[in-house]
Amino acid sequence: MPDAAEPLAKVVLIGGASGSGKSRIAELSGLPILRLDDFYREGDDPALPRLDSGEADWDHPASWHRDRALDALEQLARTGRTAAPVYDISRSASAGTHEVTLGGATRFVAEGIFVAEVVAEARRRGILAEALCVRRSRWVTMGLRFARDLREHRKSPAFLVKRGLILAGREPAIVKALTDAGCRPVRVRTATRMLARAR
């Protein structure tokens, strides 16, 4: 049963393919941000799913700690603060934790590629304000993602090219999973305006 008490704040979930603009939208919102991708598994976790090549499949939902992310969402919504991991993608490992606080806000943003996995449970727990799916051309997304990942030295260029092509092929299914989960499809500018109003 969801907690009967009204939370201090509710979450706006922002989903979309990697590189679709989720992080940028969250930053522009001016609202507190919980980055769900920081709940990735460690690179040596035996539960980490693998591609046929043997490389970690970072785009599979099992590569992520769903329950820990949900608990952090609820803790932030109901208590006003939570300790979240800081994930170093280049090392495929956690680099410590940091505190996320509401600072009096009644809305906060949580963004990540696995948002579809938490929409229903966030709603059941009574902490969901809105769920959005960022949509743009998959080829634009692929180019922006590649430029970002190179700039941030996330993985080797060869791995990024291979992953980029895989994700471009998967992107329609990613968007469908998000909309099927209850996310409203929006363009980047629309999402930015909506969050400005929420602030």
Q: How would you describe what is shown here?
A:
- By secondary structure, the protein is α/β, with parallel strands linked by helices.
- It has one domain (10-198): P-loop containing nucleotide triphosphate hydrolases (Rossmann fold), CATH 3.40.50.
- 39% of the residues lie in helices and 21% in strands.
- The protein is built from six helices and seven strands, in the order βαβαβββαβααβα.
- It has helices at 22-29, 66-79, 119-124, 138-151, 157-180, 188-198; strands spanning 10-15, 33-35, 81-88, 93-101, 107-111, 128-134, 184-186.
- A five-stranded parallel beta sheet has the order 2-5-1-6-7, with helices on both faces.
- Strand 3 and strand 4 (93-101) form a beta hairpin.
- Helix 1 (22-29) packs parallel to helix 6 and helix 4 (138-151) crosses helix 5.
- It starts with 9 loop residues before the first strand and ends with a helix.
- The mean pLDDT is 88.
Secondary-structure topology with pairs:
Layout (H helix, E strand, L loop, with lengths): L9 E6 L6 H8 L3 E3 L30 H14 L1 E8 L4 E9 L5 E5 L7 H6 L3 E7 L3 H14 L5 H24 L3 E3 L1 H11 L1
Parallel strand pairs: 1-5, 1-6, 2-5, 6-7
Antiparallel strand pairs: 3-4
Helix pairs in contact: 1-6, 4-5
What's this, in brief?
This protein has about 200 residues and is an alpha/beta fold. It is built from 6 helices and 7 strands.
Which terms would index this structure?
5-stranded parallel β-sheet; Rossmann fold; alpha/beta
